[in-house]
Amino acid sequence: MDLRGKKIIVTGGAKGLGRAMVEAFLSRESRVTVFDIDEQVKDLEHVVCDVTDHVQVSSAVEEYFASHGSPDVLINNAGILHSELLLKLSESGLLKHQIETWDRVIRTNLNSVFYVTSCVVEKMVATRTKGVVVNIGSVSAAGNPGASAYSAAKAGVHSITGAWARELGPMGIRVIAVAPGFMDTESASAAMSERALQETVKRVPLRRLGKPEEVAAAVVSVVENDFFNGKVFELDGGLVL
Q1: With a threshold of 0.85, does the pTM exceed it?
Q2: pLDDT at site 112
Q3: Could you confirm whether 150 is annotated as catalytic?
Q4: Distance (Å, rounded) from C-alpha 230 to C-alpha 90?
Q5: Across the strands, what pairs with 134?
């Protein structure tokens, strides 16, 4: 796919990994729109949307379609990192993983992918657009101790990527996942202690965290390659959980 002039939606594109992806696509002369809950985005084309709310997603996609027509590419990037043990020993006894945080992590990292993709792909199919959907997965999909909800959500993202690729491929729509390892981002620093991050770095054969621009380059690469479909592009520096 030649990215010049292509219409691209990036969810959660206001900062972090999403922002790096937005910049990478803009550098290739793509027309990028960010779907983000952050109302303060001033320097990007932006639709305010909470991607965990199906009603808001449907409205945002309709707003986008009215102005731009069908997008060519959807990047499902919006998500949150969260670490929490299934059981934790405290002074007051055993504490179970909170139901509220489980639900929030699943809604943000998995449900949102379903909501946005179903609405966007409907437009692609209706307009016979041969498009691409990229789901941002994670190395944690293999099962990261201390991150039950996040691991479950990302495993779900990887699974539906394969299912959708087989469903939508005959209509000319490719579906791909890119699975970053541990990245040098503010969200990673907020979700993990400095000690945990350093221990993780020791387990990465390259002995460092990944960079947002490296993830962005991988996303651009799989979008541009018209025969890459239905697979998970792993970008983890060789880390095995």
Answers
A1: yes
A2: 98
A3: yes
A4: 43
A5: 75, 176
| Every domain of the chain and the residues it spans | 7-232
pLDDT at 189 over 80: no
Q: Which amino acid does the sequence have at 145?
A: P
Please, are residues 45 and 39 in contact by the beta-carbon 8 Å criterion? no
In the predicted model, is pLDDT for residue 190 greater than 80? no
The end-to-end CA distance of the chain, in Å, is 33
**Residue from 156, 126, 123, 128 nearest 140 by CA:** 156
Strand 174-180 versus strand 46-48 pairing type: unpaired
83 contacts: CB under 8 Å, gap ≥ 6 = 146, 147, 150, 191, 192, 196
What ranges in the chain are assigned the alpha helix state H?
16-26, 54-68, 99-106, 112-126, 148-168, 186-191, 194-203, 212-224
CA proximity to 73, closest of 39, 17, 112, 26:
26
The active-site residue out of 25, 64, 150, 233 is: 150
Q: Does the pLDDT value for residue 109 go beyond 80?
A: yes
| Proportion of the chain in helix, strand, coil states, percent, rounded to 5 | 45, 20, 35
Q: What is the DSSP letter of 109?
A: I
CATH number of 7-232: 3.40.50.720
Q: Which two tokens stand for residue 147?
A: 């991150």
The four Cα atoms 6, 57, 129, 114 give a dihedral, to 10 degrees, of 110
Q: Which of 195, 208, 180 is nearest to 79 (CA)?
A: 180
- pLDDT class for 51, splitting at 50, 70, 90? very high
